Amino acid sequence: MTASRQFAGVACGLLAYGMWGFFPLFFRQLANVPPVDVLSNRALWACLWVGLLITVSRHWSRVRAVLRNPNQALTLLVAAALIGTNWLVFLWAVASGQVMASSLGYFLTPLVNVVLGLVVLDERLDRLEGLAVILALAAIVNEVVAVGSLPWISLVLAGTFGSYGFVRKRLPVDVVSGLWLETLAMLPACALYALWQAQHGHAVFTGHDLRTTALLVASGVLTALPLIAFAAAAQRLDLATVGMLMYINPTTQFITAIHVFGEPMRFAQLFSFALIWLGLVLFSWSAWSKYRRARQAS
After folding, report:
1. For residue 78, pLDDT beyond 70
2. Do residues 33 and 208 make contact, with C-beta atoms less than 8 angstroms apart?
3. Do 220 and 46 contact (CB within 8 A), yes or no?
4. Rounded to 5°, angle at Cα 119 from 70 and 71
5. Nearest-angstrom CA–CA distance, 296 and 298
6. d(Cα 135, Cα 130) in Å, to the nearest integer?
7. Shortest CA distance to 130 belongs to which of 14, 264, 282, 23?
8. Residue 124 in contact with residue 78, Cβ under 8 Å?
9. Phi and psi at residue 25, in whole multiples of 5°?
10. How far apart are the C-alpha atoms of 116 and 110, rounded to whole Å?
């Protein structure tokens, strides 16, 4: 791998995960708009922006190839449901001042991927991965005991994003075409929701002031840009490096929740994060060791 290629890959990775990490700051500006309204506008504008990108790059043949394959099209519907649910819960967490819970969810995501590999692919966990999963379970139990309820925001975000990544990695569809089809698949549900709200005198896509409209339009662009940057990074970097960059997103959200939004940090919650962080250290060490052994073997 050339130095320039690696530098470009790291730059793209930093852009992608940095933008995802600062999403709470952006979407907090839309806290006056109901989360389902934001999701509907986000899906609409992302679909339009990505469609324009496909038109400019003349890649509609890739989209048609997916639509001609029923299995791929059905799998993308599942992916759309997963990422749509993830977006909605994230937007609700930001609007309700629970970015800390969102951060915990994205910290949990790599360990969810380990569990999915164990359950779905019948993969075997090594000792460090097994211990990392145990620590994650201990963190969840600690949250239940301390708060008195399941940390559902964190669990839904981790489960949907982990499952989405699991589905998309096994689907031979490029990021741009996949995102356009996923947002397109969301639009019928968004349209039905908008019609239902219109019957109650509430406009989902219109009637906003200029600033809010501009932010809603920009949300579509911001949905597409980090995914495209991530795809570029994944093409240029090894999986170990991409895995390390992944922690930028939840770390930025964690810092934002405490130092920008002023969310309180309880000791029990800090203990949960400490368990997760320790589990991620073990998981990362295991992943790096596997990568190093594979490189030596080749």
Report:
1. yes
2. yes
3. yes
4. 5
5. 5
6. 9
7. 282
8. no
9. -65, -40
10. 10
**Phi-psi domain of 199 (left: phi exceeds 0; alpha: psi -120 through 50; beta: other):** alpha
How much is the pTM?
0.87
pLDDT, residue 238, reads 63
Decide if 177 contacts 92 (C-beta within 8 A).
Answer: no
What CA–CA distance (Å, rounded) separates 280 from 295? 22
Residue 192: both structure tokens together: 């039905």
DSSP summary character for residue 123: P
Q: What is the DSSP string of 37-89?
A: HHHHHHHHHHHHHHHHHHHHHT-HHHHHHHHT-HHHHHHHHHHHHHHHHHHHH
Question: What is the per-residue pLDDT across 199-250, written as a single tens digit (0 to 9) for each?
Answer: 998 999 988 999 999 999 999 999 889 888 887 777 676 655 666 677 888 8
Opening angle at CA 34, ends 29 and 35, nearest 5? 80
Per-residue pLDDT tens for 153-203?
989 999 998 888 888 877 888 888 989 999 999 999 999 999 999 999 899
In order, the DSSP letters of 102-160 are HHHHHHHHHHHHHHHHHHHS-PPP-HHHHHHHHHHHHHHHHHHHHHSS--HHHHHHHHH
Three-state SS at 247: coil
The size of the chain, in residues, is 298
97 backbone φψ class: left, alpha, beta (φ>0; ψ -120 to 50)? left
Element (H, E) at 293: helix 267-297
